[in-house]
UniProtKB/TrEMBL annotation:
Keywords: Glycosidase, Hydrolase. The gene is BnaC02g06800D. SUPFAM superfamilies: (Trans)glycosidases. The keyword Hydrolase applies. This is BnaC02g06800D protein. Residues 2-239 form the Glycoside hydrolase family domain. GO terms for molecular function: hydrolase activity, hydrolyzing O-glycosyl compounds. It comes from Brassica napus (Rape). Belongs to the glycosyl hydrolase 5 (cellulase A) family. The keyword Transmembrane does not apply.
Amino acid sequence: MGFNCVRLTWPLDLMTNDTLALKITEVVSNLGQNGLMVILDNHLTHPGWCCSDNDLDAFFGYPNFDPVIWAKGLGKMATLFRNVTNVIGMSLRNEPRGTRDYPDLWFRFMPKGAEAVHAANPEVLVILSGIDFDTNLSFLRDRFFNVSFTDKLVFEQHWYSFSHEGGAWVKHNSNDICAKIIGEVNHNGGFLLDRGFPLILSEFGTDERGVDVSGNRYMNCLVAWAAEKDLDWAVWALTGDYYLRTGTKHMVETYGVLDATWKNVRNSTYLQKLSGIQHPFRGPGLQEKKLILHPHTGLCVTNNHSGNVPTLRLELCTKSEPSTFDPKEGILWINKMCVETPDVAGQKVKLGVGTKCSKLGQISATKMHLSFKTSNGLLLCLDVDERDNSIVANPCKCLTKDASCDPANQWFKVL
């Protein structure tokens, strides 16, 4: 499936029960034997389902969230895995929330948890959640986190379709709401990347049965943003079903990558979408490769060599040829050949050697529609023919205001 790391959730009670502690070491060991890294995520205090505002362990000082016991538990867990090389990080607490999730309390107690982990395990990454169900780290804009170490400090952020205005993805045009919410996500956490700090998108996902219109639209937007930022991430969830969840045995996890048998992929199209952001686009030891991602499919634009005339098609991003697009110039180059747009809707987009290069514009609020005008003034956009994944030109759709249609097939993210 292409994953290389597991965000393994654990309750604080685990560190007060030696038998259960032994079990988690067996799980981590097995993951390591299969080449998987592990991030240990302190998800809650007592075993159960998470999360709501009125949980008794929602935030520091709640009845079931004693900061002293929490810090001791983190230290014990860090000690347990001190010399286990596939444990690469510890997330201090999942989704701080509730009526008391004030930044002042966060600044008071989070450093103590961070120092407890660092003292017990100097090698492991220390990962910090924000407030408001880990959607908000904006309080770090003008006040920073003071600890005795900095070179292994990581922040995490969560983003679901329901993380913002209720029903936003069906009430508003996808271009308009995607651009608006990306602005909020960047303000609340993405800004840390611009300041040179690591940020993990440590939870996202949607109902993989394909029935959630909001979730489907949001995922296309999220994949585009994650690709642009070249983020590390963890999708919720691998789980096919639960032994016991909120009193129900074998409840199916509709967000799960695996089906209820734990043997098969629940939705191969969803997994294909994620494949577009599974490989880094840049970073240490990598030769930067500029690509154009189609977020809806998780594939990238490349040259189609199969016909007599070179055209464009979608391909796995790892197999796609490099592309170059300068928004000011408007010329899209694929491996030293430029795009030549057709003059009639429905035709395939060709590639040429440079004598008839077409000028493309990035329109709509997301800038993900690549458009051009025909000789008779018709506005067309690059689109995907789902029959063979070839790139064609069709009338631009769903550019703004109209919430009834979905522009995802015409979204192309220039990376």
